[in-house]
Design goal:
The protein is built from 21 helices and 7 strands. The strands form 2 sheets. It has a 4-stranded parallel beta sheet, sandwiched between helices. The protein is an alpha/beta fold. Bound molecules: iron/sulfur cluster (SF4) (2 copies). One iron/sulfur cluster (SF4) binds next to helix 4.
Length: about 375
């Protein structure tokens, strides 16, 4: 009788545990798109731009090193925790993709490889904690309090049940920057925008760290509510939520970032001019990944003087917060933020950005200029 549940090799010999996991790993790693991996000609152009490599300094922590490790995994290298410092430390900033002469999209390949590692049970503690917080509590912090505590009972009771537009607040604004959430919704509600009754994390942290199956479950929880409300457009104030809704949600939804919405409605907002000079930090997932460059600048210039950073738009440096790096490698993450702060020009009153994760990471890096979300600037101009 055959060994039920036992795995055997081609010669019918029972496999030991290492062989089983090797086999499992090989099979699953085949799922990474080989063409994207083999397109890399290892020219090293990306070496000069990877912000993580700049801080860490190991070959394995730069884009080319990550691509080589993924190639080795595809070619039979046993997947183990040894690859995590390389593959889990990419912020998915995408600056390498914008420079690669061979047209490789390394953050996409890294995310696919992370998904395979998750399937092989190879994850960092930080990734596991993040996953269980999202799956258990619906937010990336494991918060047990109400996500909409920034709204009064009366405001909650007046939320439209049906609307064409939904404001997706996101975990960071809901729990860490409720004042920004309040200000953003204060503007949006004038246009009939509503909120999800039981908003969950957008699933970005799960997707970026490789928990694809779990991400699908969380996305479905949000989608069910959006369908019920009948909304065709989702407005986000977080760059991570924006790119996730735009590129990962399985349905045709129109997705607008808050700065795009604000730029479209500048006249109705009736903003006053402020005697301020600010600079603007392009969040990677709003800028480089989705090319939203002009809208935030249009809003800022309607209010005050904009003095650009040294590296902007396609060339903007990462704040260091994305891709699970802030949680997994906090020192590296903050060092990236400090490097970004070196790009801030002299004589500015604020660093403005359009993503709460950028606000948080750049603020934590300890510069002497306050970092604020664009909605804060708009709120100042409405007072
Ligand atoms: S990812 Fe692109 S830029 Fe980097 S080594 Fe490969 S081919 Fe060169
Ligand atoms: S996405 Fe950014 S952090 Fe990741 S390999 Fe490319 S340049 Fe480095």
């Amino acid at each position: 009788m055959k060994n039920e549940g036992k795995k055997e090799n081609e010669q019918g010999k029972e496999l030991d545990e290492t062989e089983i996991s090797q086999k499992k790993g090989e099979k699953q790693l085949f799922e990474v798109d080989r063409r994207s991996v083999y397109r890399c000609v290892q020219c090293g152009t990306c070496r000069s731009v990877c912000p993580v490599f700049d801080v860490v300094g190991w070959e394995s922590a730069n884009t080319r090193g990550r691509m080589l490790i993924i190639k080795s995994l595809l070619e039979g290298m046993h997947p183990s925790e040894d690859v995590l410092p390389s593959l889990a430390s990419c912020t998915t900033c995408g600056i390498c993709a914008s420079r690669c002469p061979a047209g490789v999209n390394p953050p996409e390949v890294v995310e696919a490889a992370r998904t395979q590692l998750v399937k092989c049970g190879i994850t960092t503690d930080a990734q596991e904690k993040l996953k269980s917080a999202v799956m258990t509590y619906g937010n990336s912090f494991g918060e047990t309090t109400d996500r909409k505590q920034w709204l009064s009972e009366e405001e909650l009771s007046k939320l439209p049940q049906k609307s064409d537009y939904v404001y997706f607040v996101g975990c960071l604004d809901s729990y860490r920057y409720p004042e920004s959430a309040k200000k953003a919704f204060g503007v949006l509600r004038r246009f009939g925008v509503t909120l999800l009754p039981d908003e969950q994390c957008c699933a970005s942290p799960l997707l970026r760290t490789g928990f694809k199956e779990e991400a699908e479950e969380v996305m479905e929880r949000n989608l069910e509510q959006i369908r019920k409300i009948g909304a065709h457009t989702v407005i986000t104030s977080c760059a991570g939520c924006y790119t996730t809704f735009k590129n990962n949600y399985p349905e045709e939804l129109k997705v607008i970032s808050l700065p795009e919405f604000l730029a479209e409605h500048l006249e109705e907002l009736n903003l006053k001019k402020l005697d301020l000079t600010v600079t603007y930090h392009d969040p990677c997932h709003l800028g480089r990944h989705n090319k939203v460059y002009d809208a935030p600048r249009k809003v800022i210039q309607a209010i005050c003087t904009l003095k650009e950073m040294k590296n902007i738009k396609e060339n903007a440096l990462c704040c260091g917060g994305g891709g699970g790096v802030r949680r997994g490698y906090p020192d590296v993450s903050l060092e990236l933020a400090r490097n970004r702060l070196k790009d801030v020009p002299e004589g500015v009153d604020y660093i403005v950005t359009s993503c709460p994760l950028c606000v948080r990471n750049l603020s934590d890096a300890g510069g002497n200029i306050e970092v604020i979300d664009i909605v804060e600037l708009v709120a100042m101009a409405m007072e």
